[in-house]
Structures are given as structure tokens and as C-alpha cells.
Design brief:
Elements (H helix, E strand, L loop, with lengths): L6 E5 L3 E6 L12 E6 L1 H11 L3 E9 L2 H13 L2 E8 L7 E4 L8 E4 L10 H5 L8 E5 L8 H14 L4 E4 L10 H14 L2 E5 H8 L5 H10 L4 E5 L5 E5 L2 E5 L12 H14 L4 H15 L12 H10 L7
């Protein structure tokens, strides 16, 4: 699969991440924190921007200091926010407190009354989808209304404009009313998308049976998707296309934390597709980006530049599947 260019519209949240400082500190023992941009969609946008792509975000942020922090960070990274709307009332921005440690790692996510769920049909209707080469979103946008309906409308509008749809499943149970509802909505979304990326647990969840996750990924491609990436943690990934399957391993690294790998993988992968890389090489580029991010503090600030990614790939042989 190849994308026609590197202009992306991304739907989903931008928030704030707090990291106890210095690295290794447990949250309950921390007296100082490092703050940076957070939220999966914003992080993916940063990953793509650092690799030379153009990104516009569509979401809502709270009309308060935390929302303005997120807006300032989007500006810092060069992510377009003409379609980011501030909302007042009781809506609050996402906030994550994430430890830079592997052993007994703790992440605390605040999503009560999340501002990004306030995105409406009018927010997505105002986008000129013909200006982009693909639409990207993460599954969290479907967890509540009106964001869910708005995103499905965006899917329809983007497809009408000829854009491929790229979905990172990103299943987070705490955002959903029930697992059954989530499975139904994800199945509907997955059936509309051209590229679906998730881990073995997420595809298993979509299938209703963990042991049938790979079958679900294959089924999505058999029913019309161009590509599905079935990630298996340390065992690597199986990438399914209509032409066949590609199995790849992961790059070993001295990880500081377990978080950020998924966002960096997606950014590196789609940037590779936009640059015309073969599917296998694009997956390996995503895997390399993930290895770099987990070895650094933060998510958005940890995303590699093109030069850093190229240097890493030259220094490390392509890994074989476990």
C-alpha cells in the first residue's frame, strides 16, 4: 500500500501529560513533574510532523489553562489547529500522570467529562478533506457521544473525498459504557477503514475471543481493508495485505517506560507509507520509532526526527520475528 502524499487530518484528543521527575520516581513520592503534550492523536501528529509530514488536528479542548497549554504545544510542534475548538462548562482536558519506569509502572488517566468527547458534526463538517492524503484516528473518539457520531460523519466525508481511513484501535475500557458497546462500535469502524492497527488483545476484543484476534485482522482485509497490522508485543507483528502476510520483529532497546510505543509506531509507519516505502520497511520504521520513544522521557518530545530515525535504522539490523 502507498499513500499519495504526507498531508494528514487527525481526529482525536490533545491533552497534558505529567511525568514524575527525575525519571524512575514513583508518582506518590514525586515533588516535581515534567509537563508535555499528551493524547494519542496529538502524539501521532507530532510523530508525523517530526518525520516531515503535514498535520491538522480536529478535536475539542477545554476553555481553561490546561486547554490553552495543549493549544500552545500544538503550535510548538507545528500542528494545525484551525479545527480545534475550545469548549466551556464542565468539560475538562485529558490529563495523564505517567511514570518513567518499567518496574511497577503506574499510569493514572483523568478522562472525567473529557472535552474531546464534545466534538460535534459541525466540527468535522468544516474540514476540507480534499486537502489531505489520509484521515487518521484512534478508537477512543468512538467511546462517547457526540464525538462518536461526528467521527463516523468524518469517515463518510473523507471517503467521499477519496481519502484512505487509518484506525488505531486504541481500546481503553475506562472510556466506554460497556465492552459490548465498544465491540459493536469498533466492528462498525473497522469495516469502514483501509488500514487498521492494533495489538493482539485489541483485535481479540473486536473478535469477541482473544484467540481469534488474528482471524479478525485477516477478516478485515478479506472484506476490503488494504492492510491490518496485528502487533504482538515482544513477538513482533504480522502485517496482512491482500497480497500476503509480512512478519517482523521488534528492535531491542533499554526502555525507560512502556508508554508511547503505539503512537510512535503509527506515526513512523504512516510516514513510511507516505514516503513510498514497501510495507515491510514501513512497519520496521514504525518499530524503530517505538524503540526510540520508550527509551526517552515523555511521548511527544520523545518522537524521533527523520535524522534520528535514519541513524537508528543504520545502526541496527532489521529484527527477525520471535
Amino acid at each position: 500500500m502507498k499513500l499519495d502524499g504526507n498531508r494528514f487530518v487527525i481526529i482525536g484528543r490533545a491533552g497534558m501529560d505529567f511525568y514524575p521527575d527525575p525519571p524512575g520516581t514513583k508518582t506518590e513520592e514525586a515533588t516535581q513533574f515534567f509537563a508535555c503534550l499528551g493524547g494519542s492523536s496529538a502524539n501521532i501528529g507530532v510523530a508525523i510532523r517530526k518525520l516531515g509530514g503535514q498535520v491538522d488536528l480536529v478535536t475539542c479542548v477545554s476553555d481553561d489553562a490546561i486547554g490553552r497549554f495543549a493549544l500552545n504545544q500544538l503550535d510548538h510542534y507545528g500542528i494545525g489547529r484551525a479545527h480545534v475548538r475550545s469548549v466551556g462548562g464542565e468539560a475538562r482536558n485529558s490529563l495523564a500522570v505517567v511514570e518513567t519506569r518499567i518496574e511497577d509502572h503506574q499510569s493514572v488517566i483523568y478522562r472525567n467529562g473529557a472535552a474531546d468527547f464534545e466534538m460535534t458534526d459541525s466540527d468535522v463538517s468544516g474540514v476540507d478533506y480534499t486537502a489531505y492524503d489520509a484521515l487518521i484516528t484512534t478508537g477512543t473518539v468512538f467511546a462517547a457521544e457526540p464525538s462518536r457520531s461526528a467521527t463516523f460523519l468524518a469517515f463518510d466525508l473523507a471517503k467521499a473525498a477519496g481519502l484512505p481511513l487509518i484506525l488505531d484501535i486504541d481500546y481503553r475500557p475506562y472510556s466506554w459504557a460497556s465492552a459490548d458497546e465498544a465491540a459493536q462500535v469498533y466492528s462498525r469502524a473497522g469495516a469502514m477503514c483501509d488500514v487498521i492497527i492494533g495489538n493482539d488483545v485489541e483485535f481479540g476484543f473486536m473478535a469477541g475471543d482473544y484467540d481469534r484476534g488474528l482471524d479478525k485482522a485477516r477478516e478485515l482485509v478479506a472484506n476490503g481493508a488494504s492492510l491490518a497490522v496485528y502487533k504482538m508485543g515482544e513477538k513482533g507483528a504480522i502485517t496482512i495485505t491482500p497480497q500476503g502476510e509480512v512478519t517482523t520483529g521488534i528492535y531491542r532497546t533499554d526502555a525507560l517506560k512502556p508508554t508511547g510505543a503505539g503512537d510512535s509506531f503509527l506515526g513512523g509507519f504512516v510516514a513510511g507509507l507516505a514516503d513510498g516505502l514497501p510495507v515491510r520497511d514501513a512497519v520496521l520504521q514504525g518499530s524503530a520509532a517505538a524503540a526510540i520513544v520508550v527509551s526517552r522521557v515523555g511521548c511527544a518530545p520523545a518522537m524521533p526526527t527523520s535524522a534520528e530515525l535514519d541513524s537508528f535504522l543504520r545502526a541496527n539490523a532489521a529484527p527477525t520475528a520471535a
